[in-house]
C-alpha cells in the first residue's frame, strides 16, 4: 500500500513539473503560428490595396477588379478565421 501511495505521489509530482513545460512548447508553437498569420494578413491587405490602386489606374477592368477583390477578401477572411481560432485556443479556459 505504501509503495502504491509513493508511486502516486511521485507521478503527481512529475506531472506537476512536466505539464507546464509541455504547455510552454504548445504556446510557443501557437505564438509562432499567430505571428506567421499576422504577416500573411498584412500581405493580403497590401494585395487588396494594390488591386484597388491598379483598378483606379486603369490596369484592371471593373470585372477583373471585382473578381480579384472578391478572391483576395475571401483569402483575408480565411486568414482572420485562422487567427481567431489560434487566439481562442491560447486563452485560458474558465
Describe the fold and architecture.
By secondary structure, this protein is mostly helical. The chain has a domain of about 60 residues. It is built from 2 helices and no strands. Helix 1 runs antiparallel to helix 2. The longest helix is centred in the N-terminal third of the chain and has 55 residues. The protein is rod-shaped and about 85 Å long. The relative contact order is 0.10. The mean pLDDT is about 85.
Topology:
Layout: H1 2-56, H2 62-90
Number of helical runs? 2
> For the residues shown, what is the average pLDDT?
84
Q: Judging from the principal axes of the Cα atoms, what is the shape?
A: rod-shaped
Strand content: under 5%
The end-to-end distance, rounded to whole angstroms, is 36 Å
The proportion of residues forming helix, as a percent range, comes to over 70%
* Low-confidence residue ranges: none
Please write the string of helix (H) and strand (E) elements.
HH
Count of DSSP E strands? 0
Q: What composes the largest sheet?
A: none
Rg measurement, Å: 24 Å
Name the structural class. Answer: mainly alpha
Amino acid at each position: 500500500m505504501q509503495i502504491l501511495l509513493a508511486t502516486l505521489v511521485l507521478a503527481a509530482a512529475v506531472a506537476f513539473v512536466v505539464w507546464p513545460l509541455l504547455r510552454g512548447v504548445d504556446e510557443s508553437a501557437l505564438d509562432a503560428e499567430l505571428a506567421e498569420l499576422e504577416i500573411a494578413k498584412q500581405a493580403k491587405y497590401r494585395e487588396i490595396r494594390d488591386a484597388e490602386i491598379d483598378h483606379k489606374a486603369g490596369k484592371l477592368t471593373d470585372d477583373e477588379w471585382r473578381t480579384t477583390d472578391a478572391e483576395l477578401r475571401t483569402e483575408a477572411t480565411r486568414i482572420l478565421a485562422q487567427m481567431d481560432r489560434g487566439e481562442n485556443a491560447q486563452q485560458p479556459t474558465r
